[in-house]
Fold this sequence. Notes:
276 residues, mainly beta, 2 domains, two-stranded parallel sheet, 1 helix, 25 strands, elongated, signal, DUF2807, Putative auto-transporter adhesin head GIN domain-containing protein
Amino acid sequence: MKSLILVLLILVVPFQLNAQKKDKIKGDKQVVSTSGEIKESFNKLEISDNITVELQNANRNSYVLTADQNLLEEVEIDVSDETLKISTKSKITGSKKLHLNLNIQDLKSLILNDDAMVKNSSKFQTDNLSIVLNNSAKIELELDIQQNLEVYFSDNSGGKIDSDAGNILINMKNRSDLKAKFDTPNLQVNLENSADLKLDGSSNHTEYNLKDSSNLNAKKLKTQTAVLNSKNRSDIHVDASKEIEIDAEGKSKIYVYGNPEIKVKGLTDKSRIIKR
């Protein structure tokens, strides 16, 4: 019986791997455009594969796809369960152009996978937005969020964000990187496993949680009060004008800007606090 199961596994696993593998195609360098209206309603957007998408607010959902002529049919644009999914049928190994202008009425969730890229040329507005980036995906976005912005980066993803929001949550791990400018009353930052974050802007209160050699440069983020919890080995740069509470383990040098009152909750190992 065990021998039969082993034989079946040997036969099935290669079949599954082959089924998941995409054919390869290269663009013919004859650039054309096509457009269409997206009639099904959606508030979530999921983009996979090496496609560049440009977002903008609009009164109706529509798109303009500009690409090498032989690649137009390779791009799939489908709505399922209130999610607009954009991907390619084949693995595109080269193209002169592969760009999608996307006009959207409402967006609450943005998910990018596998080298996808999203950007905008004018500020994108919405009430609440969750952004998830995986597998080397990239963004360059200017946002106006009325309530809550949540950002999740992992696996070498990265980019730039300029945003106003009522509350902002940043979760980053696995060598992801972000340069951001925020204007918000409340900001929470969680970094782990070599994440890299550079912050600018302003916040009333900011909470930082770091571990596993993550890099934080927030000396240009002007915050009134801050809390820093660190189990980190890299240097940390933070600003606070009134008060900062620090609980640190590891070997970090913590550079504090803004001349706040410093409350040390814990300072172990070789961590150091340096006022600037």
